[in-house]
Each structure stands twice: as structure tokens, then as C-alpha cells.
Write a structure and sequence with these properties.
heterodimer, A: 329 residues, 77% helix, B: 297 residues, mainly alpha, 13 helices, disordered N terminus
Chain lengths: 329, 297
């Protein structure tokens, strides 16, 4: 398992490295500018190792990346790693709340749909899923902003917080809800919550659709097993059998599903962040992209990819711990 | 089903058997009203794309009329006009062409790659299997949209590059499916018979194994279409897909973003088009899966 994780991470760096070499921009020119003389040009070319062979360049790149050196961002002129640390918490906050929504609404909905297969809860969950899978989320975000912000005024507008509330709490974790709660500044907390609720609900809906669909099929599979019949024969009520006997067995594969959905939210937030001007990783990557800031784009891609792979590995690991059959294997 | 089978006489030729099998599958698909609706949407999309000029009453999609900017939907402009006075109905209709060609191109790249990689891995086994599947797993573990973004950024914005970017991130599931099917098929007696007759590995793979993997690959493709359309529209929305003035739905939503509070139709209508088309592909895919793979339902 550790070997496959390593191979995947190496593969990821190989891809970002190749993309970095693909681009039709001369990396030396990007550093020295148009007006540099030939000697400066050659010196920088040697410094960044462009005279070496491609595998050598890749190992140099790998060494730098592993030590956390993603180069400087042209746009912000900060080290890319510092920018990423600054933007990541916003994405983390959004994806976490969305996943919580997805889990707490999606799991019961999926259980109900599976237990009452073919009845109305099943149909509701199926349609929710179909709509969720077919919805362009950037469009749903726009329509949501138009309705709930502009027309009804129920939620905060784009961004993480109103301008008047900016920088009122010290940054400890970078998660606005946590930071403001620590200081007991509930005005900031509720303002931040007002901004968070709509994008989190939209992303939560997408994750709900996926989690509910998977929970449903897991429950159906378990309810077909003989131990459920045995429990029923011994006098256990139907819902008792569903929740006490079938559900614990569903939890195991569900961990993987929740992990996958969490990981995909961390990356899938790109479009949502653009629509809501949410200052997270996705917005950082897309903005850097339009400024031809390749260091920032590739650094961001690498971090998102690593987080994605990491979460998958963790859920794989939990899966092995929770399922006794896999533990022995 | 059984009544139909009894009343039918045995097919007289291989071709007739194929036609009948196809007709039976089609009949079962159409029994499901949701799948039929999905098929109708997809056929409508194809018709719109092929006859775009007729369907849009020969209104050119890129003709600007600055005196008719941001008009609300009405008799003259069914879906209203955008900020350059272009007719949104005509643009939505022509957008079907762009969407359909992206989907078709991605499918044409992804299915052969997935089939070739998966079938070879499954058939040859051993080191070939390990290497090919490890590569597939690596690609599968990547975040799709972000990677597509990075590719699109490196290759430059545009439809062709969006297609390449999506295809590069979309092929691994097909390799997985093709491998799983091939492993089962390769053990069957008829393959052993062809091996005894001395057929070359390439012939066995492409004449005897790949055709049998096709149905699962096609089902998966249909289910994936919605995802491909959404990714392409997302890239378009971000400005990395089709470039102006091409009428692409995602880019049209982006163009309507600034005026969404006053002129809702500019962004809403192309977004609805994306939604309806993806829903259509999802419904059709679900129906196809029920027909071809009853286990999965």
C-alpha cells in the first residue's frame, strides 16, 4: 500500500513536471525579462538547470518539491507554498461543512431509500441524485446567488466575509468560523456563516447525491443477507434490523465513499469558488492560470492532487482497520 | 419477454439474429419512460446540432445588433439577446454543435485508449498487467478537473485542447472495465479454440475479445457523457474551453454572469441547456445499464 501511494505521488510530480515543460513559455525569459543580455540569460539558464538532461531536471524538480519549494508566484511575488498555506484553509472550511451536510443528510436519506426500495423515499433520492449529477454547479451557484442573495437577502453575497468584518479576528487556524468562535466574536462568526451557507449547501447537495446513492445500494445489499432475516425471525422490528444489524455493516464501505466525496469536493470547489469569489485554492489556481503564473498553477495542482491522494489513502487505511476480514488479509 | 421469444421463429441468418437482438434491447429500453425521455433529449440534441441553421431560422449566432442589447425573451427573440445583441436562441442551438462535437471527440479518444490498455492488461497478464494497471491507477487517483485545468493551461485555451485535457483524465475507468471483462472472456472455451487454431494475439484481442467488451464500455460512456459535458462547460465557464465568439454554453453562462441580477436570461438559459442535456444522457445511461447489465441495477 505504501508502495502504491509512493508510485502515485511520483506519478503526480511527473505529470506536473511534464506540464511545466510543455508550456510554450520560455522559463528563462519569464525570470529575466525581454531586455536581459545574452550573458544574464545564459547564467539563469544554467542556474535553473535547463542545460541538463530531462531525467536530471526531473530529479532536481522532485528534490525542490519535496522540500516544499514550489518557486515564487509571479502574481503575488510570495513563495507559492506560502500562498497555498494562506488560501487552503478557505477551501478546507468550505469542503468540510459541505461534506458534513452531505453525510448528515445523505446517509439517512440513502438508508431510507434502500430500506423502502421502490417507494416514494427511493424515488425522491433517485431524482435528487439525477439532478445533482446533471447540474452545472457554476450555474446553480449563479441562480442561487440571484435568488437567495439578490432577491431574498437571506444569505451573504460573494466572498468569505463582508468588507467591514475583515481582519477583526486574529488568524489562528485560517478557518474563519473556528477563529471567530475562539475569540467569542459572534458578529464575525454569523457574518462568515452567512457567506458560507450557500456555497456549502450547493457543494453539500452534490456530495449528498453521491453519498445517498451509494448508501442506498449498500443497504439493499445488506438487507438481502440471511442474518437480517434471522434477526427479523427472532422478533427484531424492521427498522431495528435496518439500523442495528444492516447499518453497521454499511459503515465500512461508506467510509471510502465519504473519503472520495470529501477529496473530490476539495478539488471540485474550483468552479464554486469562482462563482462565489471564495478566496480558496481553486480561485488561486484559476487566477494564476490567467496570469500565466505557472509556478502557482503547478504548485496548486500538486497540493490538491496530494491532498486528494492522501484522503483516499487514509480512507483505504480506515477501511482496513474497521473491516476485520481485510485486517487479516 | 418469454411470449415474444416463443412466437418468434428461429432467426435465419446471423444478420437477422443481430437485428432482432438489437430490436429486443431497444424495446426494453423504451419500456422505461425515463430512459425514453433521455433518448428523446439526446436525439433532439443531435438533430439540433445537425440542422442548427434550420432550427435557428438562419439567424446567425454571432451577428451583433447593438441596438438590441439585453432584450428580454419575447416574440422577436425567443430567449432574449445578450450584451452584444446576439440572439440567445440561435446561440443555444448552435451551442449544441460545440457540445456534441466535444462529447464525440472525447468518446472517440477515450474508448479506444481504455480498450487497448485494459484488454492488453487483462489478456497478457503478468508484468504487462501490473505496469499498465499501475499507470491507470495513478491517473485514476488524480483530481480530474484540476488536472484538466493544468493541461488546458499548458496547452492554451481552446476546444481542441479542452478535449485533449478531458480525454487525458477520463480514460482510466474504461481501462478498468475492459480489463475486468477481458479477464473473464479470455478464460472461455471459444478463445481457447481460436488459440489452438493459431491466431495471433492481436487478432484474438481485437476480433474476439474487444467486441465483447464494447457493450459495457458504451454503457459507461453514456453515463460519463454528462460528466464530460459538465467538465467541458466548466472549462468554458472559466474561459479555458471554446473561445469567443464561439457559442458554447459554459462560456455563455460566464458572459451572463455580470448581468445575472438584472437580465437573468443571459446566464440562465444556456445553463438550463447544459442541465437538460446532461440529464438526458444520465437518464439514457441509467436505462442502457438496466438493459445491458441487470446486475448493476
Amino acid at each position: 500500500m505504501a508502495a502504491s501511494l509512493l508510485a502515485t505521488i511520483l506519478g503526480l510530480t511527473a505529470v506536473t513536471f511534464s506540464i511545466g515543460r510543455f508550456i510554450p513559455v520560455d522559463p528563462v525569459l519569464a525570470i529575466v525579462g525581454d531586455h536581459a543580455g545574452k550573458s544574464t540569460y545564459d547564467r539563469v539558464r544554467l542556474e535553473i538547470g535547463l542545460d541538463r538532461s530531462v531525467p536530471e531536471q526531473y530529479f532536481l524538480y522532485l528534490k525542490k518539491v519535496l522540500s516544499g519549494d514550489f518557486g515564487h508566484s509571479v502574481m503575488t511575488s510570495n513563495p507559492v507554498i506560502q500562498d497555498l498555506a494562506h488560501f487552503f484553509p478557505a477551501t478546507l472550511e468550505l469542503a468540510t461543512i459541505a461534506t458534513l451536510i452531505g453525510v448528515f443528510a445523505g446517509v439517512p436519506a440513502g438508508v431510507a431509500a434502500g430500506a423502502l426500495k421502490g417507494r416514494w423515499p427511493d424515488h425522491v433520492v433517485r431524482f435528487l441524485g439525477l439532478f445533482g449529477y446533471s447540474m452545472p454547479i457554476f450555474w446553480l451557484g449563479l441562480v442561487g446567488l440571484w435568488l437567495f442573495y439578490a432577491k431574498l437577502g437571506w444569505v451573504g453575497g460573494p466572498g468569505r466575509i463582508d468588507v467591514g468584518f475583515e481582519d477583526l479576528v486574529t488568524t489562528r487556524t485560517g478557518l474563519l468560523l473556528v477563529d471567530s468562535a475562539i475569540e467569542g466574536n459572534w458578529d464575525v462568526f454569523s457574518n462568515a456563516l452567512g457567506h458560507l451557507v450557500l456555497p456549502a449547501a450547493l457543494l453539500g447537495y452534490i456530495s449528498l447525491a453521491y453519498i445517498a446513492r451509494m448508501t442506498r445500494s449498500f443497504i439493499i445489499e445488506q438487507l438481502g443477507q440471511e442474518y437480517v432475516v434471522a434477526a427479523r425471525v427472532k422478533g427484531c422490528s424492521f427498522w431495528g434490523a435496518v439500523w442495528r444489524h444492516a447499518f453497521p455493516n454499511v459503515l465500512v464501505p461508506l467510509i471510502t465513499v465519504i473519503g472520495l466525496s470529501y477529496a473530490s469536493l476539495l478539488e471540485g470547489a474550483v468552479l464554486t469558488e469562482t462563482v462565489f469569489a471564495w478566496p480558496g485554492l481553486g480561485l488561486y489556481i484559476t487566477r494564476s492560470l490567467f496570469n500565466a503564473d505557472m509556478n502557482a498553477v503547478l504548485g496548486g495542482t500538486l497540493v490538491v492532487g496530494a491532498v486528494f491522494i492522501g484522503i483516499n489513502a487514509i480512507s483505504d487505511f480506515l477501511y482496513r482497520i474497521v473491516d476485520p476480514r481485510l485486517r487479516e488479509a | 419477454m418469454s411470449a415474444v421469444a416463443k412466437s418468434d421463429s428461429a432467426p435465419r441468418s446471423q444478420a437477422e439474429a443481430r437485428v432482432r437482438g438489437f430490436a429486443r434491447a431497444a424495446a426494453r429500453l423504451l419500456e422505461n419512460p425515463l430512459a425514453a425521455a433521455g433518448l428523446a433529449v439526446v436525439l433532439a440534441l443531435v438533430a439540433m446540432a445537425v440542422f442548427a441553421d434550420t432550427v435557428s431560422f438562419h439567424i446567425p449566432p454571432n451577428a451583433q445588433d447593438l441596438n438590441a442589447r439585453l432584450l428580454a425573451p419575447g416574440a422577436a427573440h425567443w430567449f432574449g439577446t445578450d450584451d452584444l445583441g446576439r440572439d440567445i436562441y440561435a446561440r443555444v442551438v448552435h451551442g449544441a454543435r460545440v457540445t456534441l462535437s466535444i462529447v464525440a471527440l472525447v468518446a472517440a479518444i477515450v474508448a479506444p485508449i481504455g480498450l487497448a490498455v485494459g484488454a492488453s492488461a487483462g489478456y497478457f497478464g503478468g508484468i504487462v498487467d501490473v505496469v499498465l494497471m499501475r499507470i491507470t491507477d495513478i491517473f485514476l487517483a488524480f483530481p480530474r478537473l484540476v488536472l484538466a485545468l493544468a493541461f488546458a493551461a499548458a496547452l492554451g485555451p481552446g476546444i481542441e485542447n479542452a478535449v485533449i485535457a478531458i480525454a487525458l483524465t477520463a480514460w482510466p475507468p474504461y481501462a478498468r472495465i475492459a480489463r475486468a471483462e477481458t479477464v473473464t472472456i479470455a478464460k472461455s472455451d471459444y478463445v481457447a479454440a481460436v488459440v489452438l487454431q493459431g491466431a495471433a494475439a492481436s487478432r484474438i484481442l481485437f476480433r474476439h475479445i474487444v467486441p465483447l467488451c464494447l457493450s459495457s464500455v458504451i454503457v459507461r460512456l453514456t453515463l460519463d457523457m454528462a460528466g464530460i459535458i459538465l467538465t467541458a462547460a466548466g472549462l468554458g465557464f472559466l474561459g479555458l474551453g471554446a473561445q469567443p465568439p464561439t457559442a458554447e454554453w459554459g462560456a455563455m453562462v460566464a458572459a451572463g454572469r455580470d448581468v445575472v441580477l438584472e437580465q437573468w436570461w443571459v446566464a440562465t438559459i444556456p445553463g438550463l441547456a447544459i442541465f437538460i442535456v446532461s440529464l438526458g444522457f444520465n437518464l439514457l445511461g441509467d436505462g442502457l445499464r438496466d438493459v445491458f447489465d441487470p446486475r448493476a441495477s
